[in-house]
Design goal:
- There is one protein chain.
- It is globular and about 75 Å long.
- It is built from 14 helices and 18 strands.
- Strands 7, 8, 9, 10, 11, 12, 15, 16 and 18 form a 9-stranded mixed β-sheet that branches. Strands 3-2-1-4-5-6-17 form a 7-stranded parallel β-sheet, sandwiched between helices. The protein has a two-stranded antiparallel sheet with strand order 13-14.
- It has helices spanning 11-22, 37-47, 62-72, 86-96, 117-120, 123-129, 143-154, 182-190, 230-237, 252-263, 292-299, 339-346, 350-367, 385-394; strands at 2-7, 27-34, 53-56, 76-79, 99-102, 132-135, 158-168, 193-197, 200-204, 210-215, 219-226, 243-249, 272-278, 281-290, 313-324, 327-338, 375-378, 399-402.
- Helix 1 (11-22) crosses helix 13.
């Protein structure tokens, strides 16, 4: 049915590749490309399907991307590389007539700041080219946005209060590790909080607002208000929302380490100059520029390697309050994902699984012609029903609770 090229070879890409391979009736031709081709080859080896092609590409380089796209001629490019590379990949897609899908919005490398404006600016160009760009098709953003669209379609006349809650109640048995790219993860958590209330954005100090929330099958976990990108598109697409917030759980040990990292200057994203001895001639020294956070990433555990001993589960969902037939009601829709089950199926932990599976389903929606219209779209702007159906079939079943205490 469709020819797809996936860029990236990390944990999320590994899961997406397994899922694409499992749905060969939809994905008839498949290529994995990354800066390091051997990583792509390892994924193919793990899946055990020699028909999957691999290639080397630097996703920062538009010309390299164009050469690859023109050679392979994919109908859809799935971007599971870094958020810094969203715009170069979108440019190459436009130049080569490929549609586009990603899981995280663009952020500039030199500033810990993310918003959709950069990618929304491509809307007219994608429309004129007759190409589809699907933004934010992971879990959050992604499934949480689709949960909201599903609630609006089936259970509410007016959504007024939206709280997205993300709990990782798993244990990887490491002193400190991040569940996805450490650089992106730490940048996200250490910036100021942001939420929407009464038609405007309210800024908070990092991790300033927190409270215990009770998660299904998990129990109470301290949850912290963060800025998260799907809030930006959801309040635009559902203007009845009076307040929208995003909450994530962190263990005390994680926060203590994070505090130390910040106080030691290791979370800095600006360059510093360091004088280092040459590896092959220690008597000679050379000045090198390093970004502390990138150096920290190099010494922390690779999120791809956490799966083996990871136990417990994630619990992510939307807690919604609003009106139906003139009466107020609450609704909680969520998925719980087992780290052990995710590892058994794909060799990756649950955080990678919950992002990689929706990326594949979004691509499936595109190839089935269900999510295909020229322009740049966030996932909640498409019909949620066929996506929700596939979540149940592809390993991320969801559950609904009506008129319960949503605690928020």
């Amino acid at each position: 049915m469709g020819k797809v090229l996936m860029i990236g070879a990390g944990g999320v890409a590994t899961v997406a590749a397994f899922k694409i391979a499992q749905n060969a009736d939809v994905f008839t031709d498949f290529m994995i490309a990354s800066r390091t081709k051997s990583k792509c080859d390892r994924i193919v080896e793990a899946i055990g399907n020699p028909n999957i092609k691999t290639a080397q590409v630097d996703a920062d380089d538009v010309e390299q991307l164009k050469a690859l796209f023109n050679d392979y001629k994919p109908e859809l490019v799935i971007n599971l590389a870094l958020p810094y590379q969203d715009l170069t990949i979108m440019e190459a897609c436009l130049a080569c007539g490929c549609s586009y899908l990603d899981t995280a919005n663009y952020e500039p490398k030199d500033e810990a700041h993310f918003e959709y404006s950069w990618q929304w600016a491509y809307k007219k160009r994608f429309e004129e080219a007759g190409l589809t760009a699907i933004l934010g098709c992971g879990f959050d953003p992604g499934v949480t946005s689709i949960f909201t669209a599903y609630a609006a379609k089936h259970h509410f006349d007016e959504i007024q209060y939206l709280d997205i809650v993300d709990c990782n109640a798993g244990n990887h048995h490491k002193a400190f590790a991040t569940n996805f790219n450490p650089e992106i993860n730490i940048r996200e958590i250490t910036q100021k909080g942001l939420y929407w209330e009464d038609g405007k954005w309210v800024e908070t100090a990092p991790l300033e607002i927190h409270k215990p929330l009770t998660y299904p099958e998990v129990g109470p976990k301290e949850s912290y208000l963060l800025h998260h990108e799907e809030i930006e598109s959801l309040v635009k697409n559902y203007p009845t929302i009076k307040r929208a917030r995003f909450w994530m759980t962190f263990g005390q040990q994680y926060l203590t380490y994070l505090d130390c990292i910040q106080n030691l200057g290791m979370s800095r994203i600006d360059e510093i100059t360091y004088e280092a001895p040459l590896a092959d001639n220690p008597s000679e020294k050379v000045k090198v520029k390093i970004v502390p956070l990138q150096f920290l990433k190099a010494v922390l555990p690779n999120p791809q390697d956490l799966g083996e001993n990871y136990d417990g589960q994630t619990s992510i969902g939307c807690r919604i309050r609003g009106l139906k037939d003139g009466k107020e009601q609450t609704y909680y829709v969520y998925n719980n994902c087992s780290h052990e089950a995710a590892y058994k199926e794909t060799g990756m932990q649950g955080v990678s699984y919950t992002t990689g599976v929706p990326a594949m389903i979004g691509a499936m929606m595109f190839f089935k012609g269900l999510w295909r219209k020229p322009g740049v779209w966030n996932v909640e702007e498409f019909d949620p029903d066929p996506f929700m159906e596939q979540l149940n079939k592809q390993g991320l079943p969801w559950h609904e609770l009506f008129n319960v205490d949503i605690e928020l």
